[in-house]
């Protein structure tokens, strides 16, 4: 297949499900294939388990037949990491593949998932980005968590390694003793912090939770909102690809669409201050991630603004979910293919 194209051969790395099926964002992979073919390139999807020393068994999407076809491929010119499971990046086949790519001098990007606390520590030491962080601590000791809760009265509890708002709770100090725990689908009250800790300490410690102060977020029509920012590497820097607004609805825990959040167009709330904040943080976050973990070709940022006008960075994500905004998804395809060609010495 490579002999029939003048552009690059791009390998899209994903993972196997427990039943052996190929996981990943199929619609994204198909759109990338369509765009690459228009640029005289070609892509295939593969897993670490499908690799050997000299070739790879993978799947390419045939536009003529409108289906995936299993093929034997040479090693690609570039690998785009879209592994969807954190545990898959910790197993031996993935580690062996990364070593082989380095030996063969094959560029790859998005080297790993991002640990939320490692991100906080990284940005806390950045001269510009440190000003946009909510106060955060690791949940390690009962006394420290209680002190943190008394200071802020309302805090978020988040697993260090999770996505899509999974496992997030809000903890409120309702009175000198009463504690209220709120999740997306339920809430519970505890007569004291000791009572809460007795019920939750095992889970919080086992899942490596962190605690983060609640920000008194700006609202639109009575509900808080935040920004979803998508960025890609381009010309030795990082450029903004798109911004969406996500708004909390009935449950105020998260603004994620899968948990009931609402999508709003950025233009509805756009301002010079919002634009300036976003344009400021994108290149700094991209550079910090790449310096710390290895080259990031794309990432997304969850950010927000308080009622007082203070901006905050909540999270950065190495495997951005699909944006519900069609125009942002379309720009993502263009930016990714531009990056594929740039990193393989081709021109768009």
TrEMBL record:
Origin superkingdom: Bacteria
Pfam families for the chain: ATPgrasp_YheCD
UniProt xrefs under InterPro entries: YheC/D
Name this protein carries in UniProt: YheC/YheD family protein
Organism: Neobacillus novalis
